[in-house]
Design goal:
By secondary structure, the protein is mainly α. It is elongated and about 55 Å long. It contains seven helices and no strands.
Length: 169
């Protein structure tokens, strides 16, 4: 495992910069998809359901998720740039699975107005994220550490999702 700038000497700086941008843009795109399902529901369905007293204000979710998606992209890039590729791709596959689970949470919770389906998805996401962090740690300790805030936020979000499900039957 290495995180030095020399870990991928055969890749040009331009390729590395483009890969970093692609990883961050991919993660941000997942956030945009989620926002398409979430934003219209905030003043309607979400405003009308019961939420625990420790629910953060709606405006906090955008900045938090944007920051997390950027960190996720950088994290994936750090793993991508490791050599050999044969060692890095399994960790990136895990990342793709957790990113897919992340992407479908908003359509389940907000789009289908189903806290239960959202809860099932977020528990799977939380588990897959833990596995992903473990896989990333084998390739890039920095990459794994960059996912720690995401794990903390998903843990909080899972508790919030559970509370909303319980309060709304």
């Amino acid at each position: 495992m290495t995180d030095s700038i020399d870990s991928a000497p055969s890749r040009s700086m331009l390729v590395q910069i483009l890969a970093l941008l692609a990883a961050v843009v991919l993660c941000l795109a997942i956030g945009i998809v989620g926002a398409l399902f979430t934003t219209p529901q905030i003043p309607t369905w979400y405003a009308g359901i019961h939420k625990p007293s420790w629910t953060p204000p709606s405006w906090i979710f955008g900045p938090v998720w944007t920051t997390l998606y950027v960190l996720m992209g950088i994290s994936a890039w750090l793993v991508w740039r490791q050599r050999p590729w044969s060692a890095a791709w399994p960790a990136l596959l895990l990342f793709g699975i957790q990113l897919t689970l992340n992407a479908i949470w908003s359509p389940l919770f907000f789009g289908l107005e189903s806290p239960l389906l959202g809860l099932i998805d977020i528990v799977l996401l939380w588990l897959m994220l833990g596995v992903t962090i473990y896989g990333f740690a084998q390739q890039s300790l920095a990459g794994a550490c960059l996912l720690a805030p995401y794990l903390l936020w998903v843990s909080y979000a899972a508790c919030l999702n559970f509370a909303i499900w319980r309060l709304n039957g």
